[in-house]
Amino acid sequence: MQPHRHTAHESDTEAGHDHDQSLAHDLAVLQQRRRALGLLAGVASLGGLTLLGCGGGGSEAGTSTVSTVSTGGSTGSTGSTGSTGSTGSCSVIPEETAGPYPGDGSNSNGSGTANVLALSGIVRSDIRTSIGTASGTAGGVPLTLTLKLVNASSSCTDLSGYAIYLWHCDREGRYSLYSASVVNENYLRGVQSTGSDGTVTFTTIFPGCYDGRMPHMHFEVYRNAGAATSYANKIKTSQIAFPTAVCSTVYSTASGYGSSLTNFNRISFASDNVFSDGYTTQLATITGDVASGYAATLTVGIAA
Q1: pTM
Q2: At a CB cut-off of 8 Å and minimum separation 6, what does 293 contact?
Q3: Which candidate, 245, 238, 242, places its Cα nearest to that of 43?
Q4: Which of 60, 132, 161, 222 is most buried as measured by Cβ atoms within 10 A of its Cβ?
Q5: What is the pLDDT of residues 76-86, one digit of tens each?
Q6: Of 229, 232, 189, 195, nearest to 72 (Cα)?
Q7: DSSP secondary structure code for residue 121 in this structure
Q8: Closest to 71 measured CA to CA, from 96, 51, 46
């Protein structure tokens, strides 16, 4: 079982971007994370987490207001453990920072509270196009992501009826709702409820790589779709990592990922300030190619 980890500041070391935290602070946070490795996993949520200023998008990155978040609440009926789920042993996926661009009502994008979870249409499988009054579409290599939610406290049985909110940057490394050039867009964000087999599937694009972070996606877990309207109800926050060989192939051959290749060549799992203390339970399995698109899968264990 992988040890529980405290959330860490997400680095944004891109040229021209003002940082809310110094390198010394980042190193201090990393030391705290490594000291926490002696703790056992199994805590499904952390209370009183603080969003720290950081993120992606280069000089396009917008400003965000730091706020303290709670991860303990829930509303409505609770999702269930499937009776036909897999048996065996699995690890609880580490708790990670939501970063400064969650769009879940926990902070501001400079124009007010950013909460895409309150928008009609946010429950969807294909997250490449914006919803509501926005109409932009994120370009990039197609990626179908399947997450399987299981109960690590009960022989890894499938968890049905839970909700997963997924978000990530576009191929240019920008986050909708926050980065200046896409602040009015809300693409690459969506919610899905787990089926009887514990899975959700999102149609999206392969994420870009912005300076200071390995390629990744963010997600939050909620007890049910009714609770997935505000960060205050989430029971888990974590991130998804991607194999380096696939990242290198996409960034070096696919159109529009030029800056991602440059940023990717400057980072590694060892130097990434989220994944450096372990990422085995967060690493997606990927098949496919640039021409036809990719399919990624990851089993997400929580203590339900």
Answers
A1: 0.77
A2: 141, 142, 143, 144
A3: 238
A4: 222
A5: 445 655 434 45
A6: 232
A7: T
A8: 46
What's the rounded Cα separation, in Å, for the pair 84 and 235?
A: 23
Task: Report yes or no: 144 and 294 within 8 Å, Cβ to Cβ.
Answer: yes
> Is there a contact between 141 and 246 (Cβ–Cβ < 8 Å)?
no
DSSP assignment string, 54-101: ----GGG----B--EE------SSPPEE-TT---S--PPPPP----S-
Is 2 inside a domain boundary?
no
Q: What is the spatial distance between Cα 215 and Cα 209, in angstroms, rounded to a whole number?
A: 5
How many domains would you assign to the chain?
1
Helix (H) or strand (E) holding 102: none
Of residues 10 and 6, more confidently modeled: 10
Using the structure block, give the residue that is written with the tokens 């207001």: 65
Separation between Cα atoms, residue 16 and residue 67, nearest integer Å: 24
Residues 303 and 92 sit within 8 Å (Cβ to Cβ): yes
Q: How far apart are CA 278 and CA 272, in angstroms?
A: 10
Q: Would you say residue 175 lies in a domain?
A: yes
Residue 13, domain member (yes or no):
no
Q: Which residues contact 23 (CB under 8 A, 6 or more apart)?
A: none
Q: Which domain holds residue 97?
A: 23-302
Single-letter amino acid code for the residue at 186? N
CATH number, domain with residue 220: 2.60.130.10
- CA 230 to CA 96: how far, in whole Å? 18
CA atoms within 13 A on the CB side of 101: 32
Distance CA 158, CA 245 (A): 30
- At position 140, the amino acid (one-letter code) is G
pLDDT per residue over 260-289, tens digit each? 999 999 999 999 999 999 999 999 999 999
How far is C-alpha 284 from the chain's CA centre? 12
Q: How far apart are CA 62 and CA 29, in angstroms?
A: 24
